[in-house]
Amino acid sequence: MIHRVVGAKAPPWEALPVPSAPYELDACYRYCEAMARARHHNFPVASLFVPTALRRHIFPVYAFARTADEIASEPEYEGRRAREIDAWEAKLEACFFGETPDHPVFVALADTIARFDLPITPFSGLLTSARMDLDIARYSTMVDLMAYTHVGAASIGHVMLYLGGYRDASLHRYASDLAHALAHASFWQDLKADLDRDRIYVPAEDLSHFDLTEADLRALRPTPALDALVRYEVARTRALFERSRPLVDRIGPDFAIEIALMWHGGMRILDKIERAGSRVLSKRPRLNNADKAAVVLRALAWRGTALSHRGETLARWLAPERAPETAPEPDR
What we know:
The protein is mainly α. It has helices at 25-37, 52-73, 81-96, 104-116, 121-135, 142-151, 153-163, 169-189, 191-196, 204-209, 214-218, 224-250, 256-276, 289-303, 310-318. The chain starts with 24 loop residues before the first helix and ends in a 14-residue tail after the last helix.
């Protein structure tokens, strides 16, 4: 499930070394993988537990989603966000109308779309959420926030199931719950970073319930009321993870460990957010190597897999994340 990535200081897609035109397909897939490896995540993206035939196709989906998110949020795009989203959408539509892509992300994405007969709807949904970011920086209710993550994170969650050939409606319902949960966990994890961008994902009704205001958040001072707010948001997000739990039990072996990694990674970061309480406003919680090892082992225990991949996948995730050949070093 693709979800927003905030807080890492990696260059935007236009700053990464781009394969030379005419674009060679494998080079474009490597470029998309570089984008994924340049970020810190709460779970591995396209781990070695995903079959090789499917793994490479996750990267262009991630690259498409991450770029849309960066256009809507990163300062490099200030003053041209709407124009860049429109251009990104035009490139997407070209993929579905058989036109020759003019960007490496879309060369790889067009190939993935054709191979798996993917619909345009979830990709368009993610661009809708990016446009919402241009106009909406506050959410009155949790219903409003869920509507936002529904068109964005949940849409791309559906794409991931399509890649595995999963069309069962109940699995997609559980995938939506998992995508909501992952996105909401990132909201609470990145509370301070979003404040710096003048964005607040905590619903106004929740602030009011705990007798808090935006000024209380911006004061960056730990208080019992803020601790209570964080505990509440964490508890509600845990409920979303529990709603999604049947997906891990029912998904096939091709994606079983990957989904379990997402589930346990999200729940693990919630534990750290809850322990931090209102201190999330001064120091961003993140998973350390011990946390990541626990996530991998719990995922393996839940569904099991060939143990030959365990060490390689764990070592790759625990190492500083670096994209093959072209990826810049992350600074967090």
